[in-house]
Amino acid sequence: MPVTVVANTNTDDVSLERLRFIDIAGAPPFIVFDDLEEMKKRCQAAGVKSLIITGTSLRESRNAVKLAKEHDFYATVGCHPTRSTDFDNHKDGGPEGYLHSLETLISSNLTGRGRVVALGELGLDYDRTHHAPIEVQKKYFRMQLSLAKKYHLPMFLHSRAAHHDFVQILTEEGFGTNGGRDVGGAGGVVHSFTGTAEEAQDYFERVLAKNTPKYRSSTRNSSSMDHVRNRYALQPQFFTPSFASPHVDAPWCSCTSTHASKPYLNELPPNYRSVFFPPATQPERFVMGKPVKGRNEPTAVGGVAWVVYCLHRNAREEALARGEQREEIPFWKIARKAYKNTIEVFKLQELADA
Q1: Is the dihedral of CA 53, 161, 208, 319 positive or negative?
Q2: What pLDDT is recorded for position 212?
Q3: Contact 26, 52 (CB under 8 A)
Q4: pLDDT band at residue 44, thresholds of 50, 70 and 90?
Q5: How many CA atoms, within 13 angstroms, populate the side-chain half-sphere of residue 135?
Q6: pLDDT at 261
Q7: Contacts of 166 by beta carbon, 8 Å cutoff, 6+ apart
Q8: How far apart are CA 121 and CA 124, in angstroms?
Q9: Tens digits of per-residue pLDDT, 88-142?
Q10: CA-based, 20 to 30 A from 191: which of 75, 164, 203, 279?
Q11: Using CB atoms within 10 A of its CB, is residue 109 exposed (0-12), middle (13-18) or buried (19+)?
């Protein structure tokens, strides 16, 4: 489906001081930021108050916690589905030893600076079974869910081309309603989602709690963005800022001119653009204080929120043209509610007044 761009007649261009973001998905290779302190300054200018560094294996989870403690971020601990064979290959006690090591990392870092705020990244990825067979992924996805129950942690979930098994395992383990709270769970986020609108509906209505951020749909292609747009167009009662949790997966997944989000990002007011996407240099011409072209930064989270705003705005304009009433949700409100919900789901109350 082609992207429809409606003229932006009311950007509700508020000052940057009113915008606050938390990037909930900093990838473990964040260590590539040898100019990390400069990057943090750019985040501050863009309203990014903190980051959550994602663990994708035992090794990377340890790195995530270490980085979080050093820089006053937060961390998740877990094993990504494509790394599921790490359980079987673990030399110190096999799968049980691997799970115990994850648990120890969690239990010893639940409080204080750089604390663990979620279990993950965990789930299923049937697009990349060359990394880990399906049955191996399913086995260790299920095994890790015990830690979400025991430590009452929200989940940072991953689902690609595996919807049926993904929902089935979560349901069988008690996460089929109310975010798993009946079994000790605490909801969560489906971070990597590339399925259909109907599959997304399952997450909203069955797997995760209604008052928490839900899923991340890529801004790379129009079909993924249609999930966000169509939810508002077809079921406006579900498309509220409560369901927004923008994040950027830095240092990967930069927004580029080939992505379907580009027409929307072209509409960014200059004061937003200058801090969400500050001018970058080529890697071979690196200058301290400047971002590097092709290396994504958490500052872009504001740009992702802007795309969500634009999708909502366009769907509302089309609904009004059909004679239907739709609530207008300005950009600042999407950003503010996403910020508050992220604080709630990950229990980051100390950032409430940041």
Answers
A1: positive
A2: 42
A3: yes
A4: very high
A5: 1
A6: 82
A7: 123, 124, 141, 157, 159
A8: 10
A9: 999 999 999 999 999 999 999 999 999 999 999 999 999 999 999 999 999 999 9
A10: 279
A11: buried
Evaluate whether 160 touches 128 at the Cβ level (below 8 Å). Answer: yes
* C-beta of residue 304 within 8 angstroms of C-beta of residue 246: yes
Question: Which tokens sit at 24?
Answer: 């909930």
Beta-carbon count within 10 A of 89 CB: 10
Q: What is the pLDDT of residue 200?
A: 76
Cβ proximity of 215 and 193 under 8 Å: yes
SS (H, E, C) the chain: CCCCCCCCCCCCCCCHHHCCEEEEEECHHHHHCCCHHHHHHHHHHCCEEEEEECCCCHHHHHHHHHHHHHHCCEEEECCCHHHCHHHHHCCCCHHHHHHHHHHHHHHCCCCCCCCEEEEEEEEEECCCCCCCCHHHHHHHHHHHHHHHHHHCCCEEEEEECCHHHHHHHHHHHHHCCHHHHHHCCCCEEEEEECCCHHHHHHHHHHHCCCCCCCEEECCCCHHHHHHHHHHHHHCCCCCCHHHCCCCCCCCCCCCCCCCCCHHHHCCCCHHHHHHHCCCCECHHHCCCCCCECCCCCHHHHHHHHHHHHHHHHHHHHHHHHCCCCCCCCCHHHHHHHHHHHHHHHHCCHHHCCC
pLDDT score of 45 more than 90: yes
Compute the chain's Rg from CA coordinates: 20
The two three-digit tokens of residue 274, written as one number: 């200058």
What's the confidence (pLDDT) of residue 240? Answer: 47
How many Cβ atoms from other residues are within 10 Å of residue 96's Cβ?
A: 11
Q: Which residues contact 255 (CB under 8 A, 6 or more apart)?
A: 219, 261, 262, 265, 277, 296, 300, 303, 304
pLDDT at residue number 31: 54
Task: Quote the pLDDT of residue 233.
Answer: 44
Specify the range with the lowest mean pLDDT, choosing from 114-118, 158-162, 177-181, 229-233.
Answer: 229-233
